[in-house]
Structures are given as structure tokens and as C-alpha cells.
């Protein structure tokens, strides 16, 4: 299974398999992060040195390699090694996502279906010190482990003796952990690997910080000039623990009024409607697999929650993100002159549908799903829209449609 990964949602077992999306970043390699220490030589029992792994971390961060390659290298540093990079909500263990290397599908399916609930190592996740590599004998004594259902019915049949891992970050109750299981039981040799994880952990944490804090991630969503402002729709981008990541000017105006949305003393976004708040809380779970959008009408204002699809690595490092669209009644999201606009530019029904989707803040994927057509079909219809209207982007298209629907005096 080298070169591929499985995305594991414990609440719904295995959901899909596919190629890892590589991270695009700066065009020059970062340097100087090894702290001046020479770990380049091979260490007993390890196939790949610290330098090998550290170079691969930054190569993956810059898009020159994949994170799958990094996990595969870790797996190769232990006999029968299999590795998982996972994040879990310690308050809700079922809220769990992971990316794996070299596990067989039946191993993951049986773990997801039952054995996650019998794993004695998981309860220690929240207690682990960030950046300190450990192996499982240091967490649960072997004499105690061999008496458990988890060991006898899952670990042993799958030729697993020990787990070796490190907590990269705790993320306010949702720790990010990388762990390699191995058939090797020798504590001395396993400690060599755990020591290596301690040494490379700072570099993994830098990578995690990049994903969480990089302003580049929202560069294409400049809320000060957002297409949503052209249709008088407020936008709030909400991250893990209901924290506001960014907010558009119209969204800020609505937040300041406090009638429909507000912020708690702990900085969490609150929605006035109970159903809307419940939907937001559910969408902010890492294991959420429900509908991508949910709409609510409160006091004549339409609230739409959009669970944002993102790169899988972004989900692991950054956590879930939800966009809240706030559309006051009478806003031009339902453009009164859309029929005239479509007739004037001789739009087909498909092109009109694509235009309405853009106006209402839908992504190409969402428009395609709602219309039961392919994403390529919607892309083709948008290109045709640009050609017929003489525009070059969605923003240009919205400006034109808005001016036609709201002509000046």
C-alpha cells in the first residue's frame, strides 16, 4: 500500500482511499532548522536518519514531496512497521481522523468497527507531553497489556507488539499524534526509535503551526473584497472550538448588532437559533460526514452553514472549518433581474443555474452536486458565462449581474 493512504473516519469506518494531495508552498527550501546538530549518520536499528526525515518534512511542507512518503519512511524504521498520523477529540473519542501507511484495509476496518473502544493507549493521549517520543511499554506495562482484549484479539493477530509515537501538538483538546506500530518487542531498540521521534518532533510542530497560522490559506478568500459583499451577504469563517478565524465587513456589522450571532466570553461564536447552533457544533467535529450545507431562516434572515472541504492534511493539522453566510431579507442573492440578465446574455438553463450558484456562494462542487452533474460540466458552463458576458472572473460576473439587477438612477 506504499505511495497511497487511507483516510479513516472512525464514526463511519473507512470512507475513501486515494492519492495524498501535496502541499503547495514557497519555491525555495527552508534551511537552518536542524539546530546545528549532526544527526545525519545512521543510528542502530533505524533505516532512515534524522536528517532524512527532517528533509522530508520540509519537502512535504513545500510541495516537493508528499506526507505519505514521510509516513512510509517512518514505517520503514521498524520491523513490520505501520504508521498513522491522527487527530482525535479527547472529549469525544469517536471524533477521530487519521492518515495511514502500510496498514491493510481489514486491520483498519476491524479497528474502526470495534477495537478503538478497547485500546488502552488512547486514554493516555491527552496526558502525553508534547514533543516527547514514547513507546507503549512506557504507557501501559506489557504484563498488563497482554491481558487485554485489545492485545489478544487485535494486536497479536496483526503481528503488532509495540506502538512508538509522539504528540506533535495538543490543539486545545484535539491532540495531533504520529505513531508507528511494530512487531518488535525489544524495549532498548524501540527506545532508539522513540528518541528519534523526540528529535524530529520540533520540525513536525513547525509544520503544524504553518497549517494553523499561515495567512496564505485564506489569501484566496479576502473578505474585505469578497464576492459575497457584492451580494450583501455577511461571511464568518469559523474554526475549531467555534473560534472566529476571519469575518467580512458585513458579517462584522451583523455581529456588532448581536441579534442573530454573538461571541461568548470565551470567544466562541454563538448562533441565536438552537437548530442552527446544533448544526454548527456538529459540522465542527473532525469526523463530520453529513451534508456540506445547512440553511436556517431566523427573523427574516437566511443563515447558511457550509462545512468547508479542504486538503486532508489541512484537516489533520488545522482542524475543521465552517463558513457562515448571513443573507438579510431582500439581499440580491435572489437577484430580481436574473431572468432579464439571462435573457439579455442568451444564457442556457445550465449557465443560468451556474450563475445562481455563484451568486448564492456555492462552490463548483456544491453546484455540481445539487444539479447531479459533474464538476467539469459546471466549469464548462462558467467558462461559457464568462465568454457571453465579457467577464473574466466570478467577481466580475457578480458585479455585472448586480448592476443589472440594481440599476442606478
TrEMBL record:
Q: Where's the HTH luxR-type domain?
A: 344-401
Q: List, alphabetically, the InterPro entries matched.
A: Sig_transdc_resp-reg_C-effctor, Tscrpt_reg_LuxR_C, WH-like_DNA-bd_sf
Q: Which GO terms describe its biological process?
A: regulation of DNA-templated transcription
Alphabetized Gene3D superfamilies for the sequence: Winged helix-like DNA-binding domain superfamily/Winged helix DNA-binding domain
- What GO MF terms are annotated? DNA binding
Query: Which SUPFAM superfamilies does this one have?
Result: C-terminal effector domain of the bipartite response regulators
Provide the protein name. Answer: Helix-turn-helix transcriptional regulator
Amino acid at each position: 500500500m506504499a505511495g497511497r493512504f487511507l483516510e479513516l473516519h472512525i464514526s463511519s469506518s473507512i470512507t475513501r482511499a486515494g492519492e495524498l494531495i501535496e502541499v503547495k508552498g514557497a519555491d525555495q527550501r527552508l534551511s537552518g532548522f536542524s539546530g546545528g546538530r549532526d544527526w545525519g549518520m545512521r543510528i542502530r536499528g533505524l533505516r532512515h536518519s534524522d536528517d532524512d526525515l527532517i528533509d522530508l518534512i520540509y519537502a512535504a511542507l513545500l510541495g516537493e514531496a508528499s506526507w505519505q512518503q514521510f509516513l512510509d519512511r517512518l514505517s520503514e524504521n521498524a520491523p513490520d512497521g505501520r504508521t498513522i498520523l491522527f487527530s482525535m477529540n479527547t472529549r469525544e473519542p469517536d471524533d477521530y481522523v487519521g492518515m495511514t501507511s502500510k496498514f491493510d484495509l481489514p486491520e483498519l476496518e476491524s479497528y474502526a468497527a470495534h477495537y478503538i473502544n478497547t485500546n488502552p493507549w488512547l486514554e493516555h493521549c491527552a496526558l502525553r507531553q508534547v514533543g516527547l517520543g514514547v513507546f507503549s511499554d512506557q504507557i501501559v506495562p506489557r504484563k498488563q497489556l497482554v491481558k487485554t482484549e485489545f492485545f489478544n484479539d487485535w494486536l497479536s493477530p496483526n503481528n503488532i507488539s509495540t506502538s512508538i509515537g509522539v504528540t506533535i501538538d495538543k490543539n486545545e483538546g484535539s491532540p495531533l499524534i504520529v505513531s508507528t506500530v511494530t512487531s518488535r518487542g525489544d524495549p532498548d531498540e524501540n527506545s532508539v526509535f522513540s528518541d528519534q521521534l523526540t528529535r524530529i518532533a520540533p520540525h513536525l510542530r513547525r509544520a503544524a503551526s504553518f497549517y494553523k497560522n499561515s495567512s496564505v490559506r485564506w489569501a484566496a478568500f479576502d473578505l474585505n473584497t469578497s464576492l459575497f459583499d457584492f451580494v450583501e451577504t455577511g461571511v464568518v469563517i469559523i474554526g475549531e472550538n467555534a473560534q472566529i478565524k476571519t469575518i467580512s465587513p458585513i458579517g462584522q456589522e451583523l455581529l456588532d448588532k448581536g441579534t442573530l450571532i454573538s461571541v461568548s466570553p470565551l470567544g466562541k461564536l454563538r448562533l441565536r437559533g438552537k437548530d442552527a447552533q446544533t448544526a454548527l457544533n456538529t459540522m465542527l467535529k473532525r469526523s463530520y460526514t453529513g451534508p456540506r450545507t445547512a440553511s436556517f431562516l431566523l427573523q427574516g434572515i437566511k443563515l447558511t452553514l457550509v462545512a468547508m472541504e479542504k486538503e486532508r492534511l489541512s484537516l489533520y493539522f488545522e482542524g475543521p472549518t465552517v463558513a457562515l453566510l448571513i443573507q438579510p431579507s431582500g439581499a440580491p442573492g435572489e437577484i430580481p433581474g436574473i431572468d432579464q440578465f439571462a435573457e439579455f446574455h442568451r444564457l442556457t438553463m445550465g449557465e443560468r443555474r451556474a450563475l445562481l450558484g455563484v451568486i448564492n456562494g456555492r462552490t463548483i462542487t456544491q453546484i455540481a452536486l445539487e444539479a447531479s452533474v459533474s464538476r467539469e460540466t459546471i466549469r464548462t458552463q462558467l467558462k461559457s458565462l464568462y465568454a457571453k458576458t465579457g467577464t473574466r472572473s466570478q467577481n466580475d460576473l457578480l458585479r455585472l449581474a448586480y448592476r443589472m439587477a440594481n440599476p442606478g438612477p
